[in-house]
């Protein structure tokens, strides 16, 4: 049987500070997508890693009296360890000083140079070290970089240029004829506007003289220069899956989904497709561009010093809760506001009240009224059929939304099943029916229906809230089934085995008090 493939990437993160909410968001989305596609039986590869080169690292090293190598290793290790600790899986954690990557960058530079696509020229412009690139007028607000709020430096030097503009007609045409290549649409329009604007974009400077920067990959055709960090960094997406001849490379590349924040649209929408075109490769299937997490109307970032740490959030609220908020509250492509108060409101409403209550009511009543085992139902009537129909609807919607990168909607669709099941319980009122020995069949039917709905909710939730899903499955006695589950089969109604032992447990998500109670010891 031929299996479908799925390749998803995060940006490779700069190694000048610890991971924050922005990096965590992209990595969580990638993890959730990879888990979903795996659940559908697809051959899945998730690539993440760190961008080791560039001036930022040198700056930090100089400030801290260290070396770029030591700084890059330190922060790179922090990223890898953080993702491990938070249960975010990856198939490879790439570093741009890995030997296979260095070799590939040099091979590609040689090929592109030999093909006459690289030229040596004098260049003068406004350089932002934060962005690691020369800025154009569009990047400046009141003479400062709009992302970093710092004035750029005027720089002039002789450098190598990739003749990117040669590929612009092809690229504009490609974007026009592949309307969902860059999504959501607003970023497609932005990319087209960049291409149309004569002034802004010229050819791409791809070198730095070693006299100024020697932390990078040496140009194979001029040992006085190192490769500019973006040209080096973008190639990671090919190294990660073994371009050109590793098994599965072609299949994976054909399905590639890049996840990137809107600040790095230009390198991904303009530089990268032209680089790929120069070496004869198709662009990735989709460039999925997300917005910013903002706190007090400002992007959360290292340079602004208003970071939210994923491990601090984990210690305070549990990582599944934080992860849920990130996935549920951001509409992919738009900015989203982060405050702990908003997050607590969301956790209490959806996880503690809605889902948590359904789990505890179902399992407590199964213990009390059915001896702690999934009971035998009677033939379904309309209310039972309605719950089963809500599940079928959710399975279709979740698939459509996840593939369209509308994860918040996919979660909404899953929670509609939880809502429908809660409403069903209110209708059937098994706690009242249980007082009447004649109505045992109705009680058992209600509990069977809730257990089965929860089993399917656990399957559907597993890519987004893996630990919660596993815990629900454990309490339902179907942990092993969840581990082997495949969509869509696993979401077919009626698979939970009558007689399976169930287990009550502590509340899945205890209600969080807001504002937090005063610390008595303070
Ligand atoms: N090293 C480059 C990427 C190279 S990819 C070939 C880089 N690194 S970064 O560490 O600065 O940023 C990585 C990602 O984090 C970007 O997609 C960026 O958009 C994202 N975020 C940084 N701050 C963010 C928020 N406040 N909110 C959401 N994501 C943001 O750029």
How far apart are the termini? 63 Å
Please tell me how large the radius of gyration is. 26 Å
Summarize the amount of helix as a percent range. 40-55%
Instruction: Kindly report the CATH topology of the largest domain.
Output: Rossmann fold
Unreliable residue runs: none
CATH architecture of the largest domain: 3-Layer(aba) Sandwich
Number of strands: 18
Ligand species: 5'-O-[(L-methionyl)-sulphamoyl]adenosine
Strand order, biggest sheet?
3-2-1-14-15-9
CATH class of the largest domain: Alpha Beta
Classification by helices and strands = alpha/beta
Q: What sort of overall outline do the alpha carbons produce when their principal axes are compared? A: elongated
> What is the number of helices?
19
Biggest β-sheet, characterized? 6 strands, parallel
Whole-number tally of structural domains? 2
CATH superfamily of the largest domain: HUPs
Q: In summary, what is this structure?
A:
The chain is of the alpha/beta class.
How would you describe this structure in keywords?
Isoleucyl-tRNA Synthetase, Domain 1; 6-stranded parallel beta sheet; 48% helix; 2 domains; alpha/beta; binds 5'-O-[(L-methionyl)-sulphamoyl]adenosine; elongated; 522 residues; Rossmann fold; 4-stranded antiparallel beta sheet
């Amino acid at each position: 049987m031929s299996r479908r493939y799925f390749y998803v990437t995060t940006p490779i993160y700069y190694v000048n500070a610890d991971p924050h909410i922005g990096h965590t968001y992209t990595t969580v989305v990638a993890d959730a997508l990879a888990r979903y596609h795996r659940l559908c039986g697809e051959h899945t590869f998730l690539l993440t890693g760190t961008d080791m080169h560039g001036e930022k690292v040198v700056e930090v090293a100089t400030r801290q009296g260290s070396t770029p190598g030591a700084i890059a290793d330190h922060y790179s290790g922090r990223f890898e360890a953080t993702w491990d600790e938070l249960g975010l899986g990856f198939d490879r954690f790439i570093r741009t000083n890995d030997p296979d990557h260095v070799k590939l960058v040099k091979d590609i530079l040689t090929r592109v140079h030999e093909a006459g696509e690289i030229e040596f020229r004098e260049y003068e412009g406004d350089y932002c070290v934060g962005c690691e690139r020369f800025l154009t007028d569009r990047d400046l607000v009141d003479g400062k970089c709009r992302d970093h709020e710092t004035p750029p430096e005027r720089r002039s030097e002789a450098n190598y240029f990739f003749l990117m503009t040669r590929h612009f007609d092809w690229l504009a045409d490609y974007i026009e004829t592949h309307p969902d290549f860059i999504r959501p649409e607003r970023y497609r329009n932005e990319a087209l506007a960049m291409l149309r604007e004569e002034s802004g974009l010229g050819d791409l400077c791809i070198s730095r003289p070693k006299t100024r920067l020697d932390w990078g990959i040496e140009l194979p055709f001029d040992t006085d220069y190192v490769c500019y960090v973006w040209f080096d960094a973008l190639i990671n997406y090919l190294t990660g899956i073994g371009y050109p001849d590793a098994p599965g490379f072609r299949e994976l590349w054909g399905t590639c989904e890049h996840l990137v924040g809107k600040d790095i649209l230009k390198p991904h929408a303009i530089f990268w497709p032209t680089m790929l075109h120069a070496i004869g490769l198709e662009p990735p299937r989709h460039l999925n561009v997300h917005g910013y997490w903002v706190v007090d109307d400002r992007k959360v970032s290292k340079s602004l010093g208003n970071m939210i740490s994923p491990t601090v959030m984990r210690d305070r609220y549990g990582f599944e809760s934080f992860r849920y908020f990130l996935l549920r509250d951001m509409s992919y492509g738009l900015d989203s506001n982060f405050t702990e108060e908003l997050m607590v409101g969301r956790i209490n409403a959806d996880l503690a009240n809605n889902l948590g209550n359904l789990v505890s009511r179902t399992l407590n009543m199964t213990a009390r009224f059915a001896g702690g085992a999934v009971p035998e139902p009677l033939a379904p009537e309309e209310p039972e059929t309605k719950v089963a129909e809500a599940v079928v609807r959710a399975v279709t919607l979740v698939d459509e939304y996840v593939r369209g990168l509308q994860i918040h909607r996919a979660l909404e669709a899953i929670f509609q099943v939880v809502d429908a099941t809660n409403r069903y319980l209110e209708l059937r009122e098994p706690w009242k029916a249980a007082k009447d020995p004649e109505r045992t069949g109705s009680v058992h039917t209600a509990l069977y229906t809730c257990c089965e709905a929860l089993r399917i909710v656990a399957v559907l939730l597993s890519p987004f809230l893996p630990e919660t899903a596993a815990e629900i499955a454990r309490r339902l006695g179907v942990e092993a089934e969840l581990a082997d589950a495949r969509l869509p089969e696993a979401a077919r109604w009626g698979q939970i085995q009558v007689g399976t032992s169930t287990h009550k447990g502590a509340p899945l998500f205890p209600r969080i008090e807001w504002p937090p109670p005063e610390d008595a010891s303070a």
